[in-house]
């Protein structure tokens, strides 16, 4: 529970979500995490693919977005296999989406259902994409000199296209086998 961790360690600012089957070794993971931290974005993720013969990226890409020189690319959704989040994301989402809060009937503790498998308008969302859906619909403060209380809709979700984690199956095979698939962005946006 992130709340408990924050109470015990108030200096905790970042939470890194990492699936057990990601990465080839500790060096790959640490190098990737340090690079994600260097961006200092509320949400930034590693790139990785699905397992299988025809792997594809675990992300839903935006059309006509510009890849930044650093390799950052804004996306609609991304998997939690290598996701770095700032603690303020959870506070902002919770404040806007109060309906997510529930009380554990056994312990009486209050929890927030940030990660749920859910169907929205007949579209099934796995827990990681639902979290991204919530973030994109959370107004955040984006002050300007003219309007210090200005709100912007949506917390941006980014991937670092230079941080790529291999996805291992139960037999230890790392995907992709061979080349990484192309990143589906509109090349005209990068001209």
Report on this model:
The protein is built from four helices and 14 strands. It has 191 residues and is of the alpha+beta class. The longest helix is centred in the first third of the chain and has 14 residues.
Radius of gyration, whole Å: 18 Å
Helices, by number, come to 4
Strand ordering within the main sheet:
1-5-2-12-4-3
- Please describe the biggest sheet, giving its number of strands, its sense, and whether it closes into a barrel: 6 strands, mixed
Task: Name the quaternary structure.
Answer: single chain
Q: Find the count of extended strands (DSSP E, 2+ residues).
A: 14
- Give me the secondary-structure category: alpha+beta
Low-confidence stretches: none
Strand portion: 25-35%
Distance between the termini: 44 Å
Mean pLDDT: 85
Taken from the alpha-carbon principal axes, the silhouette is globular
Written as H for each helix and E for each strand, in order along the chain, the element string is: HEHEEEEHEEEEHEEEEE
Helix coverage percent: 10-25%
């Amino acid at each position: 529970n992130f709340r408990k961790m924050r109470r015990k360690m108030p200096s905790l600012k970042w939470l890194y979500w990492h699936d057990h089957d990601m990465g080839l070794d500790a060096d790959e993971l640490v190098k990737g995490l340090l690079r994600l931290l260097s961006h200092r974005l509320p949400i930034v993720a590693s790139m990785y693919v699905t397992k299988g013969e025809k792997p594809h990226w675990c992300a839903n890409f935006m059309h006509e977005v510009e890849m930044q020189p650093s390799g950052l690319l804004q996306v609609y959704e991304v998997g939690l296999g290598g996701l770095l989040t700032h603690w303020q994301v959870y506070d902002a989402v919770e404040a806007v989406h109060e309906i997510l809060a529930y009380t554990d009937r056994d312990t009486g503790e209050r929890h927030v259902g940030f990660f749920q498998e859910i169907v929205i308008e007949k579209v099934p969302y796995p827990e990681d994409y639902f979290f991204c859906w919530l973030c994109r619909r959370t107004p955040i403060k984006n002050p300007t000199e003219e309007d210090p209380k200005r709100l912007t809709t949506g917390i941006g979700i980014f991937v670092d296209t230079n941080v790529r984690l291999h996805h291992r199956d139960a037999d230890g095979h790392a995907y992709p086998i061979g080349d990484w698939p192309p990143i589906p962005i509109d090349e005209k946006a990068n001209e």
